Amino acid sequence: MPPKKKNKKSKKSKKTKPAKTKKQASKRAAKSYKRDRRTHLSAGELAHFKKLILEQKNEILENARRLRESLVDENTGEYVGENSTFSMHMAEQGTDEIEREKTFMFIQRDEKHLFYLESALERIEKKTYGLCTSCGKPIEKGRLEAVPITQHCFKCKTTISSSA
C-alpha cells in the first residue's frame, strides 16, 4: 500500500496576543465597565441632581446676562463708558479697559461652567450620571451634592490633580 499523503491544509495555529500589563488590562476593563454600566442612582435622585444643575444653569445665564449688560450698551452697541467724560484721562481709560477684561474673564469662566453643566445633564439623560469617567465606579452622593458637575470619584480626581 502506498503511504498516505499528508493533507496540505494544515490547521493554522492561533497566534496569541502578547500579554497586556495590569494597567492596560484595568483600563480596558474600565472602558467596558463604562459602556455596560448604568448609574447607581434612582430616578428620584437623578431628578434631584437635574434640578440642582438646572438651578445652577439658570443662575449662570442670569449672571452672564447682567455681565453683558454692564459691558455693552444695548442702544448703541458700544462699550459702556467708552465715550464718557470721566474716561478722558489716560489712567481712567486704562482702568476702564482692565474692568472690561475682568468682565470678559468672568463671562468665559461662566461659559466653561455652563459647558460642564450641559455635560452633566447629558449624562443624566443617558443614565450614566454619578459614575466616574476614569474608573467607572460610582461617585459618592455627598461629592455629587457638593459638586454636581463632577465627572470623577474622589480617588481619581486627587490622582489627576496631583499629576497636573
SSE map:
Blueprint lengths: L21 H15 L6 H29 L18 H36 L15 H6 L7 H10 L1
Question: Can you characterise this structure?
Answer:
The protein is mostly helical and 164 residues long. The chain contains five helices and no strands. It has helices spanning 22-36, 43-71, 90-125, 141-146, 154-163. α2 (43-71) packs antiparallel against α3 (90-125). Mean pLDDT is 77; it is low at 10-16 and 28-36.
Keywords, please?
164 residues, mainly alpha, 2 domains, 59% helix, elongated
What's the main sheet like? Answer: none
**What is the overall silhouette?**
elongated
Oligomeric organization of the protein chains: single chain
Domain unit count: 2
Structural category: mainly alpha
Stretches with pLDDT under 50, minimum 5 residues? 10-16, 28-36
Radius of gyration: 28 Å
The total count of helices amounts to 5
Helix content: 55-70%
Give the termini separation. 77 Å
Strand content: under 5%
Pattern of helices and strands: HHHHH
Number of strands: 0
What does the average pLDDT come to?
Answer: 77
